[in-house]
Amino acid sequence: MSKPYSAMMRAIAVDNSLPIEKVAVELWLKDLNNPLRWIVRPVLQVIFVMLLHLVWLFKRLPLPAFSAHQLLQKLICWFCIHFVKKEANLLILRHYATESNILNFLIANSDTQHNENLKPVNLYPKTIQDMLGASFVDHDQHLFDTFADLGEWQKLYNPKSHIQWEHWQPINMDEFEVEERRTQFLDFESAHALFMCLFCLLLTKEEYRDAINGFNLDQSIAIRIGQIIGDPSLSNMAYNQYPLYFVGPWNLGQRFLMHGFFTEHLYAELETRRTKSLT
């Protein structure tokens, strides 16, 4: 039986000032309420942040570059299935869907000459096993390819009068299949603390550097979609900003988490507008 929510958690459970789906809030609060999160995570972060910087340094030595994408994804999926709590796994699957929808919205509603070459993002895994074919590397690469293929952004001074939703896939939680196991005990952030070093080791140094700096494109996404729908306040949702400024792995856990919140907030805002357009 889970412990009761604290006063602050009861407050944020009903705070809808920022757009976010109720189910995402419930999953996150359940993840926060995991007692081990406040014991295991701080210890893991201290240990693995130091280890991460050592791996980061090692990967930048003048040695032959190497990567192991399939091994990385197999290890992540195996670990998630056996040791990561169900609510955290559901949040991971939701993140694939929220970001894929956001990129597809951007593709469908951007006026550029390159649009004919763009294909919609189709990373919507429904199970952890599905992530073997929809890897985190693919997830990052679709983001970078979308921006590169869209080309330079043509600033919009007026919102679009007709919004396209043809590639949008609303999230249906009933479609996700995550088995609950007795061995699952890790919360979302603790699991990420364990994954950080593995990612750094099994990606090339350029792939990893790009992956941890891709979060900063959140601001660019918010600016573009804000102009499309006529809501410049969307950029306030982006914690990660200024993509020209490349950083190392310091504070990676927080930046990763805030990227997840950003896609949840933006997805909820767009989904609300989509459903209203149907009435």
TrEMBL record:
| Keyword line | Membrane, Transmembrane, Transmembrane helix
Q: Where are the transmembrane segments?
A: 38-58
Q: Does the keyword Transmembrane apply?
A: yes
The protein's matches in Pfam families, at most eight in alphabetical order, are given as:
DUF6999 (PF22523)
Superkingdom as given in the UniProt entry: Bacteria
- Name of protein: Uncharacterized protein
Q: Which organism is it from?
A: Vibrio rumoiensis 1S-45
